[in-house]
């Protein structure tokens, strides 16, 4: 029974961690779905979101929701600006150019943050008091509830937005065939900007949540988180929104599972081992569709 | 030491052979000749350390302690001669340290070198000084493979092998915290070797490691490890890594309702521990080689003189150890009646229960220092405060 309880406890830890990965993974998957490009700067946008949340929280005038919304807004703008400056001029050139540009942006953002805020890990201020809820032996902290809750809410809204709104329909149209969508009167540039804004906003929100949950913010936090989120997106099937959510949760859970079975030094390797395994048997990822060749 | 690092990589070996050639060139210079003891020239002492760069704080404070020692020694002189300090700045860089060590020995013909405060540079400089038969006394290095270099290499620091067992004795026997959760940072050499010392000391004092967990430096998510630690219900958490991870671990531990406090080495002593950890690290215990609180008469005299000289600033570990380093050398020179390293190194090695300002100092047969007491520090109201001075028995 204690073992079972322990496992439940670890499941919640994994769920909280996985929610953060899932939010970043959504950005990767949405952009890939629409312009077929991997935006490697998402990890750094996540980091920027965490710092934006930190700066807002340190002003002492805002509560957790304002910090979350503020950071989301700031990273949305950042995402749109990055797309304008670094990716749009390269849209018609080879995919490799855009990829290299993305790596450049990623280095630029983390170096910029080292310059502005210093390389040290910064603590995150307490935005709300911790509470522990106990159900028998099982317990869950308010932080975990908030992380899982907010992440779930954001993912649900994204799903509704993409499925039912006009812009969502335009996005799906662009994902299928940009030229055809353009001929039907869809403003491609606008759709891409909105995609970047939403993806970046989610990463920014994830940054604040990570800051609250880990109590720590540092300029290079985006590197590994971004890499794992990318793995999550590929694992779930890149281009698929539900796939990114599932991928993120799987990566988070495997990581915690690695710690649970006393292999914590391999916890990062676990995530990628799972990725390789899934891709061996299902190259398109868990939720990915087989790529249809356009004739 | 370069021979030890044999690597199969071609690039590596090219770099290595280049380095060997450089140090080989240095060695071909004429060997140091120390001035005869009866001359009235000053006794020169070389300072090796950083005055600029990342580790400048260590060097600058060592220097402050050294300057105080020089002032005091020159009131009466050593063997009728004055003591003169030759300062150089190695900026914490190994290549510069090599040049400086060569210069101090060959050109300035120093009687001894005090420095470097860090282990890495002491290892490099120790090789040179030992081969040129000049005493080098590091006031700061704590890592392995330092005094093993040879009979001219010394240090006057509190070693983890002395301090960690003393700390565990206090925690287990005095506090009665027998069930220990031991956390190691796997990609941190310091943490891995310190955990080994802690773990042996826990066994030796009748404690028990009820759970052993591993993290890595720069990790931020510790929820998995903390959940397991909570279910093991330890009396105390021993963490052998650095302050950043220490603070994050404790924050997570308090979040899930673990009440045990954290105990660790001097790696926990950074102001970021409190900045990041806040209330979660209150009560955390770590050890140090010096504290200006509760001084002995000798230490109090030093503190007062230091404050008078340096604008009311309190001396830190490096200032106290730097002061002790030069005083130890001066005493050895007096005892041997010679400022020749080849002669006074033996009287230095015989130092027993020397009443230094950073504690009593004894060199064991292998020249490793045993220092007493160990200063246990506790985080109190967001600051490191002296908790207890634990005496160390010399075997």
From TrEMBL, chain A:
Belongs to the binding-protein-dependent transport system permease family. LivHM subfamily. The chain crosses the membrane at residues 12-33, 64-86, 98-118, 138-162, 191-214, 269-288. It comes from the Bacteria. This is Amino acid/amide ABC transporter membrane protein 1, HAAT family (TC 3.A.1.4.-). PANTHER family: BRANCHED-CHAIN AMINO ACID TRANSPORT SYSTEM PERMEASE PROTEIN LIVH, HIGH-AFFINITY BRANCHED-CHAIN AMINO ACID TRANSPORT SYSTEM PERMEASE PROTEIN LIVH. It comes from Desulfosporosinus lacus DSM 15449. GO terms for biological process: D-alanine transmembrane transport; L-alanine transport; L-isoleucine import across plasma membrane. It is a multi-pass membrane protein. It holds the Pfam family BPD_transp_2. It is found in: Cell membrane. Keywords: Amino-acid transport, Cell inner membrane, Cell membrane, Membrane, Transmembrane, Transmembrane helix, Transport. CDD domains: TM_PBP1_LivH_like. One of its GO terms (cellular component) is plasma membrane. GO terms for molecular function: L-isoleucine transmembrane transporter activity; L-leucine transmembrane transporter activity; L-phenylalanine transmembrane transporter activity; L-valine transmembrane transporter activity. The keyword Cell membrane applies.
């Amino acid at each position: 029974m204690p073992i079972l309880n322990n496992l439940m406890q670890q499941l919640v830890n994994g769920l909280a961690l996985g929610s953060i990965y899932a939010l970043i993974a959504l950005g990767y998957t949405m952009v890939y779905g629409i312009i077929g490009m991997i935006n490697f700067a998402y990890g750094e946008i996540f980091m920027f979101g965490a710092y934006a949340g930190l700066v807002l929280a340190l002003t002492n005038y805002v509560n957790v929701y304002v910090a979350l919304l503020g950071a989301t807004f700031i990273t949305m703008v950042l995402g749109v600006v990055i797309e304008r400056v670094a990716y749009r001029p390269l849209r018609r050139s080879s995919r490799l150019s855009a990829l290299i540009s993305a790596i450049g942006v990623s280095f630029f953002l983390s170096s910029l943050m080292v310059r502005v805020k210093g390389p040290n890990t910064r603590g995150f201020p307490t935005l709300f008091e911790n509470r522990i809820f106990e159900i028998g032996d099982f317990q869950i902290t308010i932080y975990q509830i908030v992380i899982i809750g907010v992440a779930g809410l954001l993912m649900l809204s994204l799903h509704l937005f993409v499925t039912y709104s006009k812009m969502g329909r335009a996005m799906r149209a662009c994902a299928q065939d940009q030229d055809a969508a353009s001929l039907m009167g869809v403003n491609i540039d606008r759709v891409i900007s909105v995609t970047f804004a939403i993806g970046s906003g989610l990463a920014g929100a994830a940054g604040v949540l990570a800051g609250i949950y880990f109590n720590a913010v540092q300029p290079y936090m985006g590197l590994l988180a971004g890499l794992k989120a990318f793995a999550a997106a590929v694992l779930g099937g890149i281009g698929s929104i539900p796939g990114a959510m599932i991928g993120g949760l799987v990566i988070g859970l495997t990581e915690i599972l690695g710690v649970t079975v006393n292999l914590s030094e391999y916890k990062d390797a676990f995530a990628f081992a799972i990725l390789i395994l899934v891709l061996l048997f299902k190259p398109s990822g868990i939720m990915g569709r087989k790529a249809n060749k356009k004739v | 030491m370069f021979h030890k690092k044999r690597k199969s990589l071609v690039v590596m070996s090219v770099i290595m052979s280049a380095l060997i050639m450089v140090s080989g060139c240095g060695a071909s210079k004429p060997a140091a000749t120390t001035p005869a003891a009866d001359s009235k020239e000053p006794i020169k002492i070389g300072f090796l350390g950083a005055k600029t760069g990342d580790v400048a704080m260590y060097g600058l404070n060592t220097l402050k302690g050294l300057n105080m020692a020089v002032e005091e020694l020159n009131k009466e002189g050593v063997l009728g001669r004055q003591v003169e300090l030759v300062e150089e700045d190695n900026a914490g860089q190994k290549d510069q340290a090599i040049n400086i060590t060569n210069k101090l020995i060959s050109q300035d013909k120093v009687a001894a070198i005090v420095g470097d405060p860090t282990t890495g540079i002491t290892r490099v400089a120790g090789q040179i000084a030992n081969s040129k038969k000049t005493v080098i006394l590091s006031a700061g290095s704590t890592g392995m493979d330092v005094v093993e270099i040879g009979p001219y290499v010394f240090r006057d620091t509190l070693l983890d092998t002395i301090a960690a067992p003393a700390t565990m004795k206090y925690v287990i026997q005095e506090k009665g915290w027998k069930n220990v959760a031991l956390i190691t940072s796997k990609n941190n050499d310091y943490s891995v070797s310190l955990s080994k010392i802690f773990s042996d000391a826990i066994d030796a004092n009748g404690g028990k490691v009820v759970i052993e967990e591993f993290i890595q430096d720069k990790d931020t998510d510790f929820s998995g490890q903390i959940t397991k630690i909570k279910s093991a219900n330890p009396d105390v958490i021993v963490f052998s890594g650095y302050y950043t991870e220490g603070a994050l671990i404790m924050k997570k531990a308090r979040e899930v309702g673990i009440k045990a406090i954290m105990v660790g080495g001097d790696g926990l002593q950074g102001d970021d521990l409190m900045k990041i950890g806040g209330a979660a690290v209150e009560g955390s215990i770590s050890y140090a080689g010096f504290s200006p609180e509760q001084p002995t008469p000798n230490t109090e005299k030093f503190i007062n003189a230091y404050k008078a000289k340096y604008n009311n600033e309190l001396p830190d570990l490096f200032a106290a150890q730097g002061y002790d380093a030069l005083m130890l050398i001066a005493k050895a020179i007096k005892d041997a009646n010679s400022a020749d390293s080849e002669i006074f190194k033996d009287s230095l090695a015989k130092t027993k229960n020397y009443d230094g300002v950073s504690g009593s100092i004894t060199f064991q047969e292998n020249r490793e220092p045993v220092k007493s007491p160990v200063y246990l520090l506790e985080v109190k109201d967001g600051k490191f405060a002296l908790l207890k001075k634990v005496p160390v028995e010399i075997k």
